Each structure stands twice: as structure tokens, then as C-alpha cells.
Amino acid sequence: MTEAGSIIGTAQYLSPEQARGASVDKRSDIYSVGVLLYELLTGGVPFTGDTPVEIAMKHLSAVPEPPSKKRAEVPRGLDLAVVRALAKDPEERFQSAEEMDAELARIEQGFRVSDETADAATAVLAGSGTDSTAVRKAPVVTTGAYGRPPYGGYQPPVKRRPKWPWLLALLALAGVAALVWFLLRPAVTHHGPNFVRVPLVEGIVEALAIQKLDKAGLGHKIVERPSTDIAKGKVIQQNPGPGEQIPQGNKVTIVVSQGPPQVSVPNVVGMSQSEAEGLLQARNLQADVHTVPNDQPEGTVVAQSPSADTTVDVNTVVRINVASGPQPVGIPDVVGQSYSDALAKLQSLGFAVRRQDVASNEPAETVLVEIPSANSVAPQGSTVTLKVSKGPTTTAVPDVIDLDQDTATATLTSAGFQVAVQQRDTTDPAQDGVVLAQNPGGGKQLTVGSTITIVVGVLTEPTTTEPTTTTPTTPTTPTTTDTTTTITP
Questions:
Q1: What dihedral do alpha carbons 407, 411, 414, 419 form, nearest 10°?
Q2: Cβ(5)–Cβ(18) under 8 Å?
Q3: 412 forms bridges with which residues in the sheet?
């Protein structure tokens, strides 16, 4: 930058005044933006060359080819706006970023370009502002950190079409305009105030619309209205419409967008999912449902964002978190443990416990059964039933001697005892099928479930021996046989 006559910048995006080494202003940036827009539309910059100096000289002398020549689908309005931005003369370009933005917005909405843009683009394509003077000493162009040597062998500018046909056309238009003014001047002078054409201000920001109306000599009246289609601060419509002629000084009503209508977010926490969605829809809001684990009942809204009473645009998405209910938890195996240990383990996992005491030979307070069974899953807060042993109990043994076997067995089993039956042979018919003995005996205290042995008589024929002459008769003792059978109550 300390080298006299050097230029800093990228050659493809230099404005003509930068390439010439003249002073620059914001309109130089408009030119560079035009180059970038040209590149976005066509895939290439408007001027290329083998060296930065060659490119810089084309910025001074070459007429840009319209983007539509390289890409046919580029609309005419956009074509003209880009060409105007690439005007050699800063006075023919857009004079500010706001003006260029308003023109592009007009094109986007399908309106034709302004007369200023059409005239400027026509002049640019006709070669206005091109430097056709003799080649002077080229400046040094520096791109980034590396300097390029001066280049003196560039080609002279291509000879353009003569300008006199355009000048004749402009003179003819000026003559027609003078004639029209001459014919209408008496009516304007003698029949009322000066009339001006209402400019197009729809689709541009409020400040720029007011500026254009002031420039046309018109006043303005602002009316604000919500809109879901037009961005906040832009003009939705105007009255009178563009192109109408009204007396100078009259006001033009412009309707300015306030953005989308707004609404207060309702409080839906604690509602069911369907209730919350219905209420949000009634307020022109959209529900974004997310299911989350929570101890609240399944389907209950537990949180929302934005929070209640927040003012938002209509159609804003409101997130609601809906409880999926308590998360299932595995049930541990507590069978065989003491009731106190089992209770502590289950409660630590979030279960409720119900106790049922049952008779059992297991030690007292021992868990015998759990429902649901171990290793199954259940939601936190659900109930697990534990069957707990009361511990062994004792009762008096009934006396069943002299009872028949069936009666004795029924008596003992109904008292909670098991019965073991032993048989003993007997020759006494009165003892057949009758309990002759029991062990333990009647009246003794035993644990319920203990086994009582009863001895039941079985009738057999007596055995006899014939006497001999030499030996005295000796009575024979009957043989007794015991058989044991266990009967469980």
C-alpha cells in the first residue's frame, strides 16, 4: 500500500474507478456486488483475462454481456438490474444498497423494473462510460500478499457500435416529450395543481417507501396491519396505486406489515395430551409433543415451552412434554429372605408392598411367595404382594385308639397331622380294622404337620398243631406282622 499507483483488491471484482486509481465511495461496492450477483447467476464473472491488469482494463473498457446470454432462464428484470449495477459511471448505478435491495424485491414480486434501471441498463449495454482513450501506463495490481508485475501488452478495447443511432433516438424522444409538454402546459397552468405519478412502494421497507414518496413530492399516511405473508416493516399495499397521477402534495396511504398476528400461549401443564393439543390449536399454535419418563399419570403434560402467558406469533410451535408414566423396574427375588429385608429392598426400588401372613413350617417372618414373580418388570409405584410364614404351630394329638382306621385317619388329618399306618395280625375279630396303638399318644402337643403312626389290627386264622402220644400238647403263639403306610392329610 506504500507503492505509488498500486491497487489493492481482487481484479475480477474491482470497480472501474478502483481500476483507474480514482477515489471510491459506496457505489464502488454496488459494482462489486453486481459482479458477485452476475457470478451467482451464471457461474462466472463478467470479465476474465490472463493477468489482473488485463481484467482491470476490461472493467474500464468492455461492455458486460447480460447474464441471460449465458443462462437463458434469467428473467429480463434481473438481467437489467445486474447490468445497471455494472455501470462504468457511478452515477448510472444504484446509488445505495437500499435502492438496489428495493429493485430486487420488486423483481422478486413480479413487477417490472423501474424506469431508472431500464434506462441505465440500456445505456450500459450501449457502451456508456467505457474508456476508449489510448492505453495509458497500467497500474500495479496487487492481489493479496503477492505483487504482480506491470502488464503492458494488453489488447486495445474492442471497437463498439457507433453511438449516433442512440443519440438520434434520444433526441426524438426528447422532441416528443417537449411537444406533449407544450400541448398540456395550458391545462396544467390554468386548470389546477401540478400532477405527479405515484411511485411503486409495495414490497419495500417503510423508510424507503417514505423516501420515494417524499422525492416524488407526495405525503404519506401509515396504516399498520398484521400479515403472515409479508415481512414486518414492509409495505403490503398502497392507495393510490403505482402509476396513478395525483396532485402534488397529496398523501398516499401505505399499509405496513406488523408481521404475523400474535397470541398469548395458554398454560397446558397438567392437562391430558389431547386437551393440550386442542387448546393450542384453538389459539392458532402448533403442538410439538415429546414423550418423557415421569411419575405423573401416562399422557399428562408435565412441561411446555414457551411458557404460559408468553406472547408469540400465530403458528408458533409450542413444545409439550407428555409423561409416559413411571418407568418399568425389574422385581428382585426376595423369596426365602426375612420380611424386613424384602420390604426394604422393594421400597428402595419404588414399589409398594402388601403382606399376607400364612401358616407354614418355615421359620416365622420368612417370605414364602412374591407376586408378581421375581425377575418380571412392573412400573414404579405398583404393589408387590409378599406371603409371609407365621412360623410352626403346635396342637394336641387326638386319641384314636379303638377307632376304625378310616375314622382315626380322618380325625388326625383334620387336626393338621400326617398319618402313618402299620398293620398287625390279630386273631380277635373285634380288633380287625381297629387302631390298636398310636405314636405319639393322644393328648401330646406336636407341631402341626407332624406324622402320627397308628397300628391297625388285621384278622388272621389261628395256627394249630396235632398232639402226639409221646409229647404233651403245647399252644402255638400266633405270628404278628406289621406293615407301615403313611397317609398325608
A1: -90
A2: no
A3: none
Return all residues near 187 (Cβ < 8 A) that are at least 6 apart.
none
H/E run at residue 386:
strand 383-389
The owner of cell 419495500 is: 204
Cis peptide before 372 (omega within 30 of 0): yes
Distance (Å, whole) CA 197 – CA 240? 10
Q: Is the dihedral of CA 386, 392, 398, 399 positive or negative?
A: positive
- DSSP labels, 18-29: HHHT----HHHH
Task: Write phi, then psi, for 105 (nearest 5 degrees).
Answer: -65, -40
Q: Could you report the per-residue pLDDT of 213-232, keeping only the tens digit for each? A: 999 999 999 999 998 888 89
* pLDDT tier, 34 (very low <50, low <70, confident <90, very high otherwise): very high
User: Does the structure show a pLDDT above 50 at 392?
Assistant: yes
Q: 194 burial class (0-12, 13-18, 19+ CB within 10 angstroms)? A: exposed
- The H or E element spanning position 208 is helix 206-215
pLDDT at 486: 61
pTM for the structure as a whole: 0.32
Cβ neighbours of 157 (radius 10 Å): 18
Provide the grid cell at 75.
428473467
Chain position carrying cell 398293620:
423
Residue indicated by cell numbers 443519440: 167
Residue carrying C-alpha cell 417372618: 365
Q: How far is CA 356 from CA 73, 210, 339, 343, 365, in A?
A: 85, 86, 11, 13, 11
Cell digits of residue 301: 403434560
Lookup: cell for 430 = 373285634
DSSP letters for 447-476: ETT-EEEEEEEEE-PPP-----SSS---PP
For residue 101, the surrounding DSSP H or E stretch is helix 97-108
What is the tens place of the pLDDT at every residue in 242-275?
989 999 999 999 999 988 888 999 999 999 999 9
Please report which confidence band the pLDDT of residue 359 belongs to, taking 50, 70 and 90 as the band edges.
confident
Look up residue 102 and give its three cell numbers.
Answer: 428495493
